[in-house]
Amino acid sequence: MSAAAPARRSFRAADLLSWWPAWLLFALVLCALFAPWLAPMDPDRQNLLARLKAPGFEARGAVYHLGSDELGRDVLSRLIYGARISLSVAVLSVLLSGVVGVTVGMAAGYLRGWTETVLMRLVDIFLSIPAILLAIITVAVLGPGFVNVILVLALTRWPRYARVAYGQTLAIAERPFVRLSRAMGASPARVIAVHILPNIVGPLLVVATLEFGLMVLFEAGLSFLGLGVQPPTASWGSMLSTGRNYLATAWWIATFPGLALFLLVLSANMIGDRLSDRIGKG
Amino acid sequence: MTLLSVSDLTIEAGPPGDRLRLVDGVSLSVKAGETVALVGESGSGKSLTALSILGLLGEGLTPTAGRILFDGRDLATLAPEELRRLRGADLAMIFQEPVSSLNPLVTVGDQVAESLIVHGRASGAEARERAVEMLKRVGIPEPARRARQLPTELSGGMCQRVMIAAALISRPRLLIADEPTTALDVTIQAQILDLLAELGAEAGTAILLITHDMGVVAETADRVCVMYGGRVVEEAAAVPLFAAPRHPYTGMLLRTIPRLDQPPKRALYSIAGNVPSPRDWPEGCRFRTRCTRADAACTALPPLDAAGEGDRRAACFHPLEGPQ
Ligand SMILES: Nc1ncnc2c1ncn2[C@@H]1O[C@H](COP(=O)(O)OP(=O)(O)OP(=O)(O)O)[C@@H](O)[C@H]1O
Ligand code: SF4
Ligand SMILES: [Mg+2]
Prior knowledge:
By secondary structure, chain A is an all-alpha fold. In chain A, 73% of the residues lie in helices and 2% in strands.
């Protein structure tokens, strides 16, 4: 027992380390939640005397740890506040597209008949349009902004969930316990919600995690194009976009949000892959 | 009083144009409180008949003819909502595979309580309490603990009991039990059958018992319907049927019952040949390919009352006479 203890402890430490994507995601969530306390400065406060200063620059007692941008705003503070936009857009659009897509997919897979035909043709049509193109076009029509970005992302991405929910529902609906619950007099809504949904949560979770990473990228892409959250609100995508103009003189403006995006998307995808290994198919 | 009456039920599979008839003109009836056995070898259409009574035929299967009256109401004319109100309340079913028929992610107690909750007959807490009571009634030890477990933690025999508890908790007027004991060993089989009979008698529940085991039939049934190749070939009260089967197929089935008063050689008797698959059913009498009495007349389809007398009927041109 005592001989085995150290081996077990080191195994546990390695285990915790191997979950770094989850820790990183957790840390980013904390950043987003506690941004007002964590950010050293007001992310929108401009200081024309401190424009384009390199990381570590100090002015009137304030340190710009990651440098300042073209309006003299603190890059670190904007980065921390930007996490709020990235994460909340991603979470809300995943939730919205997930709810819509899963409902559509399960209804099609369980009710079959013309419901199935109509809904799944619609899914096919949506899936045949390049997602980012559809997002850009609709946001251009609806106009930019936080809520519209979420709506547009949900509109673009629900078919993915519908596909998975549909296939999974078809498979589960064949199982004898679904017939039993129908024989008990359960309504279609109850069969779907109580007996089928819990049995397909795993694969849906995998899709949601992978989609989460994609939503972060889409939001950044839209903001980069000026179609996302509007200035002066800090968003990693818009920071990248302005930073692009100063790459030669002030590399830090674009580099740090780029790095943050990279790490966030990477960890979401790694978590998704890990989940799908555990759960089976995705 | 007739509780269930099925007449001329025909069930077909496949797309229009290339239809395969799996159940062909089946008629049977169950009176209130009685136990009717539906017997026949594997593939004779027993489960399909049962499923169509509940309106639960799978994808690709259609009832193309016939009428099903439950308590005088034509089930085909009911709205889906009305049919749902019957299912699990007045009309319950136990399925052939107990283990896979339970949802692996829902606790045993909740599944037993399902019909009470679905039909709004009891609130959550009360339903759960009654489920525990019911689990106790079907002989599950430590019912309160078991109720909180998932089906995967239970043995096959226990799952079978759970299914029975779930079906009987709402005191249905008709219980359709599809091979409720096939997966179990002989001792548990007997227990389950006793339990069904006891609980059924207590609630006045009529039982349509589906089985291919003539021994089970002998122990439990008031009346017997014998199916072969998607048709009913003989129907009679249990006692006269066992005393003197008329259809040669019934005679064959009876010889499969192990008998204590006979040397074991007879107990090992099994039916020669197999039920042909629905694609290969012969013209005329479907039993023709295996019947020792078959002759030229049998190339015509014998009607069910070809050999009838009193309230028994058999679909045979050359029925057996006297005890076999
Ligand atoms: N969906 C389907 N499509 C085509 N054929 C089917 C379908 N379902 C069942 N069958 C066929 O219908 C016939 C009758 O099936 P059924 O399940 O009613 O038999 P059973 O009498 O209950 O047999 P068992 O004792 O094996 O349960 C079988 O030959 C079966 O292969
Ligand atoms: S009708 Fe002919 S073939 Fe059919 S069971 Fe009777 S004797 Fe046999
Ligand atoms: Mg069967």
